[in-house]
């Protein structure tokens, strides 16, 4: 096996149409290994659609996606999805399976049995008590459920973590804690992470690189620092203006 | 109360047949509905079409659906050959399966449609194939809903299966139809109670399985399944444990005389060491074809019925000539053996009270023609439409002042109360003797003969032991004896059971 290329993901000319509606209009972007990238934009800007072309929950109308140097269509879909952790807003824990069964589902599909200590280790990674393994999802709080969702995404030891509005349904305190936890896991496990969010503050605080999407196109590709400094153009700056204004107001209140 | 209990205990055979028929229909319904539901969940079009079809089937009355399979299977014989049964278990199974389809299919489709889309997305996101998604996620989540559909289907099917009696399939409908025909409410009640108890038991057991699925308690589901399986196995054993093939099957059409004669035949055969079983409540055409194909071994029919319905003859021959032609026709066309005439006739006749007969000096229908314009004639709703009535009316030039329809029971009351002066009656009806009626002679021979004849299926006709056991019945039953036996089961009070009436008949006939 040759050494993996430094590019984790390459989008080349991605277009996705739903009938006459254009969801993604010609996106070409490269994401390097180890990057934490946030895809930010208003609802309908095409950010979720673009994300889902990676694990082929969406097949693009035209264009190609390379994952670790390989076309995502080169291998059978289930094999691809097992290498890509996926966390999304509605969490989607299987209600008829225990926490342990939910976490172990990916490896189980691949014919492996996840050992008890590995499950406990995964629970520890998302800061959950090992005593929860036998619980059913409906006995957990929203925050606990999404933590299990993250643990499930990490269970097969993926190289790439895709997150689609992962913290959208959580209360602010939980949201903040879980965001930081995921950022730490990204470092510790050497992941490449792509997170879709409509919250610019979250993107600026967690990501290394922020892609701003508008009407199906990537209109800005900047570091958080550059965005805060005013780079990235009009659409990006409109989004940055919100947390900036909030910060100013808070600073005034503190005076 | 004791009668009811005895009637219920006498239904073991019908109960096990009922269980097997219902269980088969539900099982077949499940094996059709579940794959269809999976397909429907992948295709909106399939969902629409299959649900529309299943709903359409539901709008057909169950009785009609059962009846419809007779012509359908008859036409399918062109493909599958004459071995394809058109009556009995197969058509009943097919009709009930169609009936069971809707609740199972609808619940399965609804359950699939209502699955949390987040869960489906997660199933895809973790890399499940379509098959894995079905087995690991969709099936377990839909299972309690599907089970609820199966419960509904089971209750419907067990109820509708009572109607299978009408197409010659043994079921708990046998006592219900027999009881309805003879106004024997104990029999009706026994059939209803057992079938209702069966439905409730099935509902409870399936409910336990459903709860097991819903609460993810394996012990409950498995326990419920085992109980259902045990019930079906017990029914199988009860139905097929004895040597079914060696039993002689005696058919009866759906009126008292037929039930009594069937028991009379059965008692004689049992006395000769045969095991017998009864197939009651058969339609006229069904009884004939059931015997022709050997599903029924023996039954009693009437010369005029065979003449008109089977041979499609419209002419009217003298008694002996007609009988001879029927014997030859059956031998040549169905292979059935007409063993002989029992000795009485169940024909249509015109009856008046003895008082009327005396005061108007009526002996024959010819005498009636003079006074008919001052009289009211009553008949059951069918009577005035039948060719026999038209033939008689025209032969004697009968023109009654008024013509009224009554249900058979009220017809006799009407005669007594004077609301009718003449009625169209069946000549072997027990009420003719009980009410002391006079059946007017038919010198022109305008009413066709309805001599009761004993028919044997091709196979039974070759069985000399059967033939010799039944031979003494030929010519042994006069119309008076038959009327008395019919009356003993038809009267309002002190009804005899069919078996008792048959023993009484045997006694009077000197058998």
Please report the distance between the alpha carbons of the first and last residues of chain B.
Answer: 32 Å
Give a count of the beta strands of chain A, DSSP E runs of length 2 or more: 10
Number of helices of chain A: 10
* Shape field of chain B: elongated
Strand content of chain A: 25-35%
Kindly state the percentage of residues in helix of chain B: 55-70%
Sheet with most strands of chain A? 6 strands, mixed
The mean pLDDT of chain A is: 91
Q: Report the count of strand segments of chain B.
A: 10
Q: Largest contact between protein chains?
A: A-B, 22 and 20 residues
Radius of gyration of chain A: 19 Å
**In CATH, what is the homologous superfamily of the largest domain in chain B?**
MetI-like
Quaternary form:
heterodimer
Layout of helices and strands, plus pairs?
The complex is a heterodimer of chains A (255) and B (511).
Chain A: E1 7-18, E2 21-32, E3 36-40, H1 47-52, E4 62-67, E5 70-71, H2 77-83, E6 84-88, H3 99-103, H4 105-109, H5 116-125, H6 142-154, E7 160-164, H7 172-188, E8 192-197, H8 200-206, E9 209-214, E10 217-222, H9 224-228, H10 233-254
Parallel strand pairs in A: 3-8, 3-9, 6-7, 7-8
Antiparallel strand pairs in A: 1-2, 1-4, 4-5, 9-10
Chain B: H1 2-9, H2 12-42, H3 44-59, H4 62-80, H5 89-113, H6 117-125, H7 130-160, H8 173-182, H9 185-214, H10 218-240, E1 248-253, H11 256-271, E2 276-282, H12 284-292, E3 298-302, H13 303-310, H14 319-333, E4 337-345, E5 348-353, H15 354-359, H16 365-371, E6 376-379, H17 387-396, E7 402-405, H18 408-417, E8 422-426, H19 430-434, E9 437-439, E10 451-456, H20 458-462, H21 464-470, H22 479-490, H23 498-508
Parallel strand pairs in B: 1-2, 6-7, 6-8
Antiparallel strand pairs in B: 3-10, 4-10, 5-8, 5-9
